[in-house]
Write a structure and sequence with these properties.
This protein has 859 residues and is an alpha/beta fold. It contains 30 helices and 14 strands.
């Protein structure tokens, strides 16, 4: 029985010119899909958190939906309907559901805040929430490629077009990634981005409907569709069928039933091996992307732009490789061997990238602070990413059309063929992404994970060269002994080369984890005390020759025992603790070196200290190196550590606190801006006890005026009576502490001084003296203004909101700027002595103002 004949008569073949138009349709579809992915992920992270577990659940639901959609489509939808009309309906459904998710998430957040939690129940509930929001739309996304696949047959030429469709979809995703990361979310908000994606879906649907109309054949110069659309066939598991297709009706009954039942009239036992190989290929691709994204973000700075560039380069490689693979699939007589060769070459490509991102690229003589424009740095970042990632990405992209060609022989339903291969590929990708991000990196480290990926790539390639595996159409046959010996030698040789490549994979240098993008310009790096790769981040602890210890995360210094760093870390704790009459419960957002949390240990009234930290390595290991400075806070019986995203914890906890102090990482780090939004500050305010206080760290360095203005305006929008306390050096700006109160209250200088002078506050006085504050007035002299003073300066500053996280995009453009002195000088112009804020004896108030104004006059 000739399967090709059935395919040609039972599917809708289209002209060459029309297929070129279909490439444009799939380009737009891929663009919309990436916009949705970024928007949905950002929205749902606000609800379920940004930890590795939460992101793993999000990714699992998203990729799982693609897998289910691609696998189920050809089994539930028969070949009767016109493929372009089916595709158009899928696009309309995606657009409708995509907009629906944007409006559904706020309601989901309310439900989740009431019932969400930690542990296994919380884990399952997060998955349920994500599935309810994302699964329907992602299933439709996964069905688009199999639906459009029915516009071609399963000949080598047709399969090559399937590879081109996949490549066009991937290149569209590249455009969507760059459009969203560099324009839509930088200039507009999440809703606008979703509307753009929905408009693309609508445009693609309209185009597909137009192309499926009978008049298109007349316009196309007589190149009509081989089968005019005559009706819809909804075939649920091959039982209920209704068709008006004369071509299908003319087929013999036994051929038609066999086609609908299996989709493959000449089954090939090798197709299962191809599916297994492409699944391993997908596993290695997504696993490597997780590893390389972490390493490259250390080198480039983990901004939203860096992640967009890395993803765009990776997807570009997939698209380019898919085009090359489509050409090879059409011309090769043995696509399974070419597929195997791709996987073997990937072993070398993974080793190449592993070497570049650890031993070469971090040491290129590039100083990002030399350029005032971030766009020049973006060009350098793109070049470095392409140099490292493109070879492997191209090979992974070529694997998909080659797998289609290898499994196509004997299969008459192109949709079933694409669905099977695409489902296997996405299932493997899901395992690779989740396995590497949640388990393997934190357990084994990036070096060993890359060694595993090299071995898996070699193994998947060698599967295609197993002795006796000669023909997919005819199954497994015995080859001559000479051929078997040759292939056996190939197997052992491939394994030996893979083992050698894996052995040469270098470990990530601790200097890269510590200093990131500034490593090439560092002349003094100090000594490594500790380096670890955790589930969520890579961390390091160093010590310089002068004895200063530093805690590094994400390629930047986050805390240290340096004078000004210690002052800031202590101020975040002592300012609210001294101004509160009797603090009992404290929430510390971000453990860091533990110094801020340790500041509360010395207060006799404090009964509970809750530390919320997203990376387990930090409290368990890093904070131990700063035990003298943090008063062994992790060993204090009053301390409780919550390993979770801080926003998620505050959203779901029922506890309230007297003090909440937040010391997140810089807002230019991807994901950190969610701890600088108006909604986050409102969450904190709702979890304050009466008379409670909130402090928030705001850096002036690695920032510019617009970023600082947005941070202050957002905080003061929630705390209109808020104040600013400066950690400056003789008037030169460094960083700030913002103080907000649940209710407006005065600061009584006499009461604060009396409290600090009491006998049971001796440890508090010593803690303040260690960082240069010898009295209550010395600490309060760091006052740098209040919300009412800066009203004019902040007049046009944008508010950072959950639905418009412009801050991380704005801050990502200024991470290499150092304008702290200029920004702080502008703020001081508006500072006035707050008569209504400070109460107490007149002598005390005058002495305080003299201390406050002294740095300004000296300047």
């Amino acid at each position: 029985m000739n399967g090709m004949t059935v395919s040609q008569s039972a599917s809708v073949s289209v002209s060459h010119k029309l297929r070129l138009v279909l490439l444009l349709l799939f380009f737009g579809s891929g663009c919309a899909a990436l916009i949705y992915e970024i928007v949905w992920f950002q929205l749902l992270q606000l609800v379920i958190g940004s930890s590795a577990v939460s992101l793993g659940i999000l990714l699992g639901v998203f990729v799982g939906g693609l897998c289910v959609g691609s696998f189920a489509f050809p089994r539930f939808i028969s070949k009767g309907p016109h493929p372009l009309r089916v595709y158009a309906l899928l696009e309309l459904g995606i657009g409708f559901l995509g907009i629906g998710v944007v409006f559904l998430v706020p309601f989901v957040a309310q439900v989740y805040a009431s019932h969400g939690g930690r542990g296994l129940p919380g884990f399952l509930f997060r998955g349920l929430i994500c599935a309810a929001c994302l699964f329907p739309a992602t299933v439709l996304m996964g069905a688009t490629l199999p639906a459009l696949a029915r516009s071609v047959d399963t000949t080598p030429r047709g399969v090559s077009w399937l590879g081109l469709f996949y490549g066009a979809n991937t290149l569209g995703a590249v455009f969507g990634c760059l459009l969203t990361g560099f324009y839509l979310l930088r200039i507009h908000d999440l809703h606008t981005a979703a509307y753009v994606a929905a408009a693309l879906n609508g445009t693609m649907a309209l185009g597909a409907f137009s192309l499926s109309s009978p008049w298109w054949g007349r316009v196309d110069g007589g190149a009509r569709l081989s089968l005019a659309w005559t009706g819809w066939v909804w075939n649920f598991r091959g039982r209920a069928e209704r068709t008006r297709d004369p071509a299908s009706a003319s087929l013999p009954a036994e051929r038609l039933s066999g086609d609908m039942a299996s989709g493959c009239l000449v089954p090939g036992t090798g197709a299962g091996m191809v599916c297994f190989t492409i699944a391993l290929s997908g596993l290695c691709a997504l696993g490597a992307e997780v590893v390389w994204t972490r390493l490259l973000s250390l080198m480039l700075g983990p901004t939203v732009y860096t992640f967009s560039i890395i993803l765009a380069v990776f997807l570009s490689g997939l698209g380019i490789g898919s085009g090359i693979g489509a050409f090879l699939a059409k011309s090769s007589l043995h696509p399974e061997r070419v597929l195997g060769a791709c996987q073997l070459l990937l072993s070398a490509a993974i080793a190449w990238t592993a070497f570049l991102v650890t031993k070469s690229l971090p040491y290129w003589p590039i100083n990002p602070s030399l350029s005032r424009s971030p766009w020049f740095n973006f060009q350098l970042d793109a070049v470095r990413c392409a140099w490292a990632v493109l070879p492997a990405a191209c090979l992974w992209g070529a694997s998909f059309p080659l797998a289609l060609a290898a499994a196509a022989r004997g299969c008459d339903d192109s949709a079933r063929l694409v669905g099977k291969i695409y489902a296997a590929n996405t299932a493997g990708a899901l395992l690779g992404a989740l396995g590497c991000s949640i388990f393997l990196i934190g357990w084994l480290g990036t070096q060993q994970v890359q060694q595993i990926l090299i071995g898996l790539s070699a193994a998947s390639g060698l599967l295609m060269f197993l002795p006796g595996f000669t023909s997919f159409g005819g199954g497994w046959l015995r080859s001559a002994s000479k051929s078997s010996l040759g292939r056996g030698a190939t197997l052992f040789g491939g394994l030996a080369v893979a083992a050698l490549l894996g052995w040469t994979v270098p470990a990530v240098p601790w200097e890269l984890i510590a200093y990131g993008r500034y490593l090439p310009s560092k002349t003094i790096v100090g000594e490594k005390l500790y380096m670890g790769e955790g589930i969520n981040a890579s961390v390091a602890v160093t010590e310089l020759e002068n004895g200063v210890r530093g805690f590094h995360i994400a390629g930047k210094l986050e805390a240290s025992t340096d004078t000004w760093d210690m002052r800031m870390q202590r101020m975040l704790g002592h300012v609210p603790a001294l101004l509160h009459p009797s603090p009992r419960s404290v929430l510390v957002v971000g453990c860091g070196a533990g110094v801020t949390a340790g500041s509360f240990v010395v207060y006799p009234s404090v009964e509970r200290i809750v530390i919320c930290e997203i990376e387990p390595l930090i409290p368990r290991v890093v904070a131990q190196f700063f035990s003298n400075e943090n008063y062994d806070v992790l060993q204090d019986p009053r301390t409780q550590v919550i390993y979770d995203d801080a926003r998620h914890y505050i959203l779901t906890t029922k506890d309230t606190f007297d003090i909440i102090t937040s010391d997140p990482i810089h807002p230019w780090v991807k994901g950190a801006a969610t701890l600088y939004t108006k909604e986050y500050f409102e969450l904190c305010k709702r979890h304050l006890n009466p008379g409670g206080l909130v402090t928030q760290w705001v850096p002036l360095y690695e920032s510019d005026r617009e970023v600082v203005q947005s941070e202050l305006a957002t905080f003061f929008d929630v705390f209109p009576q808020g104040t600013i306390w400066s950690n400056d050096e003789n008037g030169a700006g460094y960083d700030l502490v913002l103080l907000g109160q649940a209710e407006a209250a005065k600061i009584n200088l006499d009461q604060v001084q009396d409290r600090l002078s009491s006998q049971n506050y001796e440890r508090v006085r010593q803690s303040l003296r260690n960082v240069g504050f010898r009295s209550a007035l010395a600490l309060l002299s760091t006052y740098a203004g209040q919300a009412t003073d800066l009203r004019l300066w902040l007049k046009h500053a944008p508010i950072n909101r959950d639905g418009d996280l412009h801050l991380e995009y704005l801050a990502g453009l200024s991470l290499n700027q150092h304008e702290q002195e200029r920004v702080y000088s502008e703020m001081l112009i508006y500072r006035r002595f707050p008569e209504a804020l400070f109460a107490g004896r007149e002598a005390q108030r005058k002495a305080l103002w003299q201390l406050i104004d002294r740095p300004q006059r000296r300047k």
